[in-house]
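help with these tokens:
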Amino acid sequence: MDSLEFKSIIAGVLFGIWPLFINRSGLTGNVASFVFASVVLLSVSPFAVSNLSQIGNSYWIWAVAAGIVGAAGLLLFNNVLSKATPQSVGILVVLMILIQTVVPAVYQVIMNGEISMTKLAGFVLAVVASFLLVK
């Protein structure tokens, strides 16, 4: 396993944990999103400051689009989390992650221009997993 795979695994663990914590915070969806985004901004700022020179060489439209889509997803998901019970939050996070996994897989299929039998089986199994996990 290379460094990028290891970092992806750790990121997956951390992305899987934060919704469980924010669900326990007792904050409503929009306030939870604000607090979460504020803490994230404060936490990443020291790491970003050393690379600010690359801002001029960036494709801003993609960064802005990512921010808008991410903000909408964060607001929606934190609204869900603020209303979920501790007993149901796990399933809701799993459903979100399953869909989150399918989106880049569909993107890869589109970029490759074809779908392999392995990917098709993966999509079918994702639907089956979603169905089984909500029952």
